[in-house]
Amino acid sequence: MERICLKGVNKSYKDKEVLKNLTFDIQGSFGLLGPNGAGKTTLMRILTTLIPFDRGEIIMNNHISWKDHNVVRSYIGYLPQHFSLYRNVTVVECLLHLAVLKGIEKSKAKVEIDSLLQEVNLQEHKKKKIKQLSGGMLRRVGIVQALLGNPRLLVVDEPTVGLDIEERVRFRNLLRKLGRNRTILISTHIVEDVEMTCDYIGILKKGEITFTGKKEELKDIVKGKIKEELLTIEQADAMGNQVISLKQQDEQCLVRYFTENRDLHTEVTPTIEDAYLYLTKKGE
Questions:
Q1: Are 159 and 146 in contact, with CB atoms under 8 Å apart?
Q2: Which residue of 46, 71, 214, 220 is most buried, as measured by CB atoms within 10 A?
Q3: How many C-alpha atoms does 26 have within 13 Å on its Cβ side?
């Protein structure tokens, strides 16, 4: 598996610093979490060499530098958040065209496309026109085009946005499967996507990395800091940013909230979402 090391990476647009001294490693199935505006898409575009970074260094496996754009691109498959294809051609025709653009020999491309369509469960839809596909099918075609040429690093930006529940579950399972034999980076603001598909997590807030590590390590950050209690709506409203979630129960609510007082009420088992909210709300 590939390991990508970022060291002091910065990016600014005019006077606004979007990414600030990012230093962390990407390995295995890695989920990048962060609220909208945190800088996730900017980082994805840097990692896929679509835009340059201002300062710092990015290296893969200790010898491949992001300064060598053409070399790096040969290792990367990319599925952006806003993905569109030629609407009036069939799935196979579209993918074959994209494969040729990637420099893959036509006869080899046909075999590879057939195998990949089987892998993402689209074989029976290969003769449909792109405009006839559902949102989930279109995302799966997007994964196929990203996998053409067997890239060692797969980058996926906001993978399940706009998908219904069934397609979201199917797409998560596909990403989990694809992450078994390659490095995969998933950028999203949907905590459940990362929890279901990734082994490693990074949290980006206002252009800075606040955490990187395994899922259990992330949960440990809020261990003993989360409580649940039956309260009125008024009491819950008064707690402000401390509240994680609430569930209506008759005239009261079961409120899940942050507290530094370990003597208060019953401690509950922390989740990825608890830790994510704790780190992104901290200081606000």
A1: no
A2: 46
A3: 29
Q: Is the pTM of this model over 0.85?
A: yes
Mean pLDDT of 102-122: 91
Angstrom distance (rounded) from CA 121 to CA 134:
13
Written as six digits, the tokens of 44 are 């994805």
229-252: b (≥16 Cβ within 10 Å) or e: bebeeeebeeeeeebbebeeeeeb
Token pair belonging to 282: 């901290």
SS3 content of the chain, % helix, strand, coil (to 5): 35, 30, 35
Q: What are the structural domain ranges in the chain?
A: 4-215, 221-281
Q: In the prediction, which pLDDT does 2 show? A: 87
Extract the tokens encoding 168.
């979201």
Q: How many Cα atoms occupy the beta-carbon half-sphere of 278 within 13 Å?
A: 21
For 52, 78, 156, 171, 206, the CA distances from 82, given in Å and listed in that order, are: 20, 11, 11, 16, 22
The more confident residue out of 98 and 249 is 98
Q: Of the segments 44-58, 156-170, 215-229, which one has the largest average pLDDT value? A: 44-58
